[in-house]
Amino acid sequence: MDEQHSPLFSVIIATYNRSWAIERAIESVFAQTERSWELIIVDDGSTDDTLVRIQPYVLAAQNVYVVVQANHGTGAARATGIRLARGEFITFLDSDDTYLPEHLAVRKQYIADYPTCDFFHGGVIVIGDRFVPDRFDPQRRIPIEECAVGGTFVIRRQVALQLGFAPLRYADDADFFDRARRAGIEPVYVPVPTYCYNRTSPDSLCTQLALSAYKTSSTSPSTYQ
């Protein structure tokens, strides 16, 4: 896709061993009422049949791309997607989550209403446990409403490239949010709940941290929120 015909949105799915959920996530992108998007799937070293399940979508659509890399975690996978993206705005979808059909259309309207804004966030429907480990004190649990949920981020591409996502395995989205604000970028909150955040996955990083009180080492295989 050349720059002249670049989409409004680049949707980035970072995934690791989520073959059981990846098709559901992809289908929710295909179901969007807003059609100006590309989908970049970053397989972060999966050892299951994730690539087999992704392949039909890549073959069926010219705006779906997949890249495979060694396992480095969510932040590094998102950073890879950002480097490959061509959309005016970068957004994300965790591989066990879904969008409601109007998700991108609602964000497009906010972009039109706030033309000078570079960063939008918010609008979550939580499926399952509403509490996650605090990144500063994993034994303390806080409501998701108090968190920066990376899946809801809509970031102007040049800003995303400038700030980058740190290669963290947990809370890379909160880290980005904090750095953006320190850089003088004030995110606009989108209250319309169209991002379905699935907290029922037993292998999610939040769930593992809640169970292990943050015993995950920096060298262990990554899983996704």
Secondary-structure map:
Blueprint: E1 9-15, H1 22-30, E2 37-43, H2 50-60, E3 64-68, H3 74-84, E4 89-92, E5 98-99, H4 103-113, E6 119-121, E7 124-128, E8 131-133, E9 141-143, E10 154-156, H5 157-163, H6 172-182, E11 188-189, E12 195-199, H7 205-212
Parallel strand pairs: 1-2, 1-4, 2-3, 6-11, 7-12
Antiparallel strand pairs: 4-10, 5-12, 6-10, 8-9
What does this structure look like?
With 225 residues, the protein is an alpha/beta fold. It has one domain (3-212): Spore Coat Polysaccharide Biosynthesis Protein SpsA, Chain A, CATH 3.90.550.10. Helices cover 30% and strands 22% of the residues. The chain is built from seven helices and twelve strands. The chain has helices spanning 22-30, 50-60, 74-84, 103-113, 157-163, 172-182, 205-212, and strands at 9-15, 37-43, 64-68, 89-92, 98-99, 119-121, 124-128, 131-133, 141-143, 154-156, 188-189, 195-199. The strands form three sheets. A seven-stranded mixed beta sheet has the order 3-2-1-4-10-6-11, with helices on both faces. A three-stranded mixed beta sheet has the order 5-12-7. The chain is globular. Residues 213-225 have low confidence and may be disordered.
List keywords for this structure.
single chain, 225 residues, Spore Coat Polysaccharide Biosynthesis Protein SpsA, Chain A, seven-stranded mixed β-sheet, three-stranded mixed β-sheet, globular
